[in-house]
Amino acid sequence: MVNLDDLIRVSRDNHYKLLTLVGDNPAKVDEITAYLEDKDWEVYDVEENVLDLIEDIPEGKIYLRIGDKIKKWVNTLGDRIVLTNTSILCSPELDKITPLGAFKYLMRGSREAVLFLDARIRDNKAIYSRPGRDDYCEMDLSEVISEQIDNVIIGGDD
Fold first, then answer.
1. Which domain of life is it from (predicted)?
2. Of 57-61, 87-91, 118-122, 142-146, where does mean pLDDT reach its minimum?
3. Residue 74 lies in domain
4. Which of 47, 36, 38, 108 lies closest to 79 in space, CA to CA?
5. pTM score > 0.70 for this model?
């Protein structure tokens, strides 16, 4: 088991300050999110925000403009953010930008994030969906601090 506060500290020292928690455990996501909200982290539902961002983009242009829209949106946020419900970024309609692809480069400098990724870990990759499906994605975890969500415990010192 790994303490969440320890993971955040290690991630803070990483070039990309994007702590990525991988797995399908809604109760654990809720527990971690509530804990971080109590510590003044801002929580964002990525799917909800992406749907708002793309509503004025013509359907055939979404995949071309989504990266810039996400960058502009993130630049309006605070320095400590939590990103939930991120699977929409693996959709073919968004050119499978992936959650890591969308946020990794934006989490440098003083901005840091905890990203929940509904996927499974194999080697040093997060695997979303199943091979052969339109939304299948493999994401390299080697440049971010990541952990299986079920291995994360809450509490401890700051």
1. Bacteria
2. 57-61
3. 2-149
4. 108
5. yes
